[in-house]
Amino acid sequence: MPNRNSRLRVALIAAAMGLSALAAGCATKPDPADEAAVQAYQEANDPLEPMNRYFFEVNQFLDEVLLKPFAGWYHVALPDPAEDGVRNFLRNLKSPVILANDMFQGEWSRAGTTVARFFINSTIGVGGLVDVASMMDMNYHEEDFGQTLAVYGAGEGPYLHLPILGSGNPRDYSGRLVDYALDPLTWVGYAYNVSEINTARAGLEALDTRARNLEAIDELKRGSVDFYATVRSLYRQHRDDLIRNGESEQQASQEMITDEMIPEDGGTSVDLKAAQSDDQITVAE
User: What is the pTM of this model?
Assistant: First the structure.
């Protein structure tokens, strides 16, 4: 009974702290006269920064006491080929969702690659454990419904950092819900009352990803003046890279030019340089 009461008190304290963070969750807008501060505030697009920082610290604590130690043991216990096999298997399971979003975006060539990868790796690749398709120059790519929404012009909304879920924004979090519904394993779990397979899969994905980035994250922490701001920036760069399919902003802008936008004299009516953002950044995954 005392243990139960102790857990209840801890839960209530955590809830109270969370509500306090929510109450104070809005970042203070800078003085309109301070142009530099206003520009920095708009570029950050993080109006809920105090709340986000609170949840970021919660996630950092959970990482230090749970995920990082387990990821370390996982990395030590499994040889590199075994880790690669786990990652290949998990990637293969994503194929139906990737295929759906390839088609939603009209990326038929990439959709064909996704189908070919799935059948090759599921058969010759022993259920996806071996990425035979990559050996045949059919490389893996990520697609999700958050990217699909971005392709059709949906804005990302403000930056968010939520417990367990981590970095995101309204567009990407909404996309995750759609991807969950698109995933055949979701319905297999419900149909056969084995929904735990999706929980186990999500846990294994988190463990595998953390194990592969043990040193990288430690170095990032040591080299960051503000680790929260660094993570926020890297998340946005990574998502922008995925949305553009790894292309630069200039390449993406050029692909948007249609025949109707080119005059008969052969000149172009679009100033690509003006269309590019002044604050273009290098994507670091």
Answer: 0.77
